[in-house]
Structure formats: structure tokens, C-alpha cells
Amino acid sequence: MKKVNSNSRRDFMKFLGLGSLAAVVPTVSSAATIPHVVVVGGGFAGATCAKYLKMWGGTSVDVTVIEANATYVSPILSNLVLNGQKTTSDLSFTYGSYSSKYGINMLHSTVNAVDKTNQILTLANGNRVKYDKLLLAPGIDFIKTNDYDITKVPHAWKAGKQTNLLKAQIDAMQDGDTFTMTIPSAPYRCPPGPYERACVVADYLKNTKGHTNSKVVVLDANSKIIVEEETFAAKFTEYGVEYKASTTVTNVDDTSKTVTYTEAGSSKTLASTVLNVIPNQKAAPVIFTAGVNSGNWAPINPLSYESVVASGIYVIGDSQATGQPKAGHIGNSEAKICADAILRTLNGQALYTSPKTNSACYSPTSATEASWLTGVFKYDVDTQTMVSANGASGASSTANYPKMFNWSGNLFADTFA
Ligand SMILES: Cc1cc2nc3c(=O)[nH]c(=O)nc-3n(C[C@H](O)[C@H](O)[C@H](O)COP(=O)(O)OP(=O)(O)OC[C@H]3O[C@@H](n4cnc5c(N)ncnc54)[C@H](O)[C@@H]3O)c2cc1C
């Protein structure tokens, strides 16, 4: 527990500013103890959890969010930057009013080391932060086939500079040029996202830029379109997207803009004007630094999101290893289960035993149409896992397009406002 007095916030900030390990225990001047929960990552999962910890825990808990960037750019809706329907500014969130409204301490730096024995984090700026409970919500990292320059071959799967880079490359295309994208092996961030991107780009080239001779090629590592198959297959036919399933990328050359891949046992190389390689994915680096991974992801107890590898450390969002999709909406949902579980544990109460989570993805398929997909997951006592309880999808339509912004507006507000 972090010992506090009436000047707790000032002492806390001073404590954070001290670089030596000997200085990490603040002065004790009162008997009051307030547990300190530190959240690493201020995205959909982490920002939601910190907010609900304070909303539900009030002054009984001290919450600090450590986020590498001062501005968060939402990957959700970022495919609409590519066709000019949104800008990255439209999708940007800062933390000033969020942190003051809920009384959350906000630090902007990267967590580089996790000392589990002493419960101390070391930040890139040299500061050290002590925690009682640690929540890791750091998102994803990429598994590249080889060392190539992502400013020449952008993934645009984390939003921001990468998104604007890909948009500039698409805008520079001439009629007859080719856009090639690769889809990673599942599990990856946002199952419908790559198929949605292929549709948005194909529609933009054909219907906005008037490129009747340009081509969109999709190389999918999976054996088929993994979600909303009917919807995306119909759109691919409508736009003339060339779709190849079961393709494994083996090399990317950023100079010749070529991708080498295997298909049905033979190796092929394809040159493209714009190459958008979305690599295979794994949990973000801090999951490995903290040693809470098993393979590429972090296994957790779905009743609490506490790591099954290290007690007192929780993992939510894209880094966790349940079968739930890696998506912002469900990260927001997991965050509330986790906030409740942390507060119950701090209060010596039993965990809630029937958690449910839900997920929604709206996929723009053009500048005027969107489809949608939802899923509900519930805890299964026998297998002690989250299992699918329900799901539905809606075909691409113009009626869905404005509903997409109602849905995203609610999610953004529930996370960052
Ligand atoms: C094109 C596209 C469309 C999408 N559409 C949808 C959709 O319709 N619906 C949906 O639900 N989801 C969608 N998603 C997926 C969604 O964006 C992600 O699943 C979501 O962002 C994951 O949230 P997260 O909090 O786990 O990770 P992130 O949003 O990546 O947040 C992690 C944060 O942690 C920070 N961080 C990482 N490591 C450290 C460290 N060591 N120290 C400090 N900070 C650190 C990062 O800077 C980052 O801000 C889409 C994604 C894409 C790419």
C-alpha cells in the first residue's frame, strides 16, 4: 500500500520524480493507507478501466495511468481516414479533462521494466513507480517476416502517423496502379478490419478517384474470410477485388515494393505501387518484460483478468489470451469486469462469478455504407473460459452508416470522456 497524508498527491508526484530505488517509498506521516493501482496503456481497455476504478472506487483507491503518448489516435474508424471521410484529428483523444474529472494521475512515458518482487515499474524517463496492483493494457506488437522500413511499407494497424502515411500513398496512386494488402493469421486486432479496409480502398479508388484500371489485391493468411464472409465476398465481387486465401508472406522488400508469399506450396513475388502489409501479431513488449506471457499472448483468469502467471498483475484488451476478439469495444467491456474484480479484491470480497462481455464492430464498406457484427461472451464454469453466448451481424447498407457514428461516439465517450 502507498502510505499517504493530506499532501498525498504532492508527495506522490515527488516520489515519481525520484530516480533512485532507495527513494521509492514515500514518507509516512499518517496511518491512512490507500492502495495504488497502476494502469499501463491509455487505450480503449486501459483508459476505461482507470475511469471505472475511480468512478466505483472513489477515494478508496489511487489510480495512475502510464501512457506512452500524450494523444491517443483511435484505430476504430481509422480506415475512414484512407478515403477522406475522417482525419486522424477527428479520432484523437487527449487526457487532460479525463484525468481531472476522475482524479486519475496521468504520466506520459513508456514502461521499460517491471520489478515484480518489489512491485516497481521503471519508466523510459527514468522515473520509478510503485504499485499495489498492476494492470497491463498495452495493445499489440507486430511479428514482421524480415526487417523492412514501415514508413515505405506501412501497416497502418496502429493509428496516427502510419494511417496518414498510407493515405498519402493511396492518394498518389495513378489509374492502373495496384494496391496490395496482406491479412495476418488470426488472432489479430479487429477481425473484420482488414476486409473492411480492402472495401474502403477499392471503393475510393474506383468511385471517388475514378480509377477504373486500378487493382486491389488481398493476400489473406487465413483459409477464408474469417468474419462476415457473405458481406465482404459480395463487396469484393462488386469492386473487383482480387482475393487470395491461404497465402503466407515470407519476405517484404521495401525498395522494389514487392511481397513474396507462398500459395499452395509455391513461392510467388508480387510487385505493387502501394504495399500495405499487416504483419502477424502478438502482445505488446511490456507483457514479455513483465513475464506474464505464455507464447504470444497473456493468459488470464476471466473472472478478474488477473494473470495466471503472476498474481497482482492484470491484463485486458488486445494483449490478453482468452478466445474473445481483439477489439476496442470488448476491451472496454473487459475493463469494467477487471475494475470490479480489482476493487472487490482490495475490499476482501469474492469475485463476481458470472461475467459477460460484449463486442461490436461496424465496418465501413464504402464512403456511404457500413455492415456490423456483434458478439456476447459469458463465463463457462466447466471450462473456466469465456465462451460465445450470442452473436449477430448486419449486411452492408447506407442505413448502417450513420448508426456507426452513434455507436463509436458512445464508445469513445464511455472510454475517454
Ligand atoms: C482499422 C481498424 C478498425 C477497427 N475497428 C474496430 C471496431 O469497429 N470495433 C472495435 O471494437 N475495435 C476495432 N478495432 C480494434 C481496436 O482499435 C483495438 O482492438 C483496440 O484499440 C485495443 O485496445 P487496447 O487498449 O487493448 O490497445 P490500444 O488501443 O493499442 O492501447 C494501448 C496503449 O498502450 C500504450 N502502451 C503500450 N505499451 C506501453 C508501455 N510500455 N508504456 C506505456 N504505454 C504503453 C500505447 O501507446 C497505447 O496507447 C479496429 C482496429 C483497426 C486497426
From TrEMBL:
Q: Name one Pfam family in it.
A: FCSD-flav_bind
Which residue ranges does the record assign to the FAD/NAD(P)-binding domain? 36-140
Give the InterPro entries listed for this entry: FAD/NAD-bd_sf, FAD/NAD-binding_dom, FAD/NAD-linked_Rdtase_dimer_sf, FCSD_central, FlavoCytC_S_DH_flav-bd, SQRD, TAT_signal, TAT_signal_bac_arc
Molecular function terms from GO:
flavin adenine dinucleotide binding; oxidoreductase activity
The family database entries (SUPFAM superfamilies) matched by this protein are listed as: FAD/NAD(P)-binding domain (SSF51905), FAD/NAD-linked reductases, dimerisation (C-terminal) domain (SSF55424)
Signal peptide coordinates: 1-31
Would I find Oxidoreductase among this entry's keywords?
A: yes
Q: Which Gene3D superfamilies match?
A: FAD/NAD(P)-binding domain
Q: Which residues form the Flavocytochrome c sulphide dehydrogenase flavin-binding domain?
A: 355-416
Q: What is its EC number?
A: 1.8.2.-
Query: Does the keyword section mention Flavoprotein?
Result: yes
Q: Which UniProt keywords apply?
A: FAD, Flavoprotein, Molybdenum, Oxidoreductase, Signal
Q: Say which domain of life the source belongs to.
A: Bacteria
Start and end residues of each Sulfide dehydrogenase [flavocytochrome c] flavoprotein chain central domain: 163-279
Which NCBIfam families does the UniProt record give?
A: TAT_signal_seq
Q: What is this protein's record name?
A: Sulfide dehydrogenase [flavocytochrome C] flavoprotein chain (EC)
- Organism of derivation: uncultured Sulfurovum sp
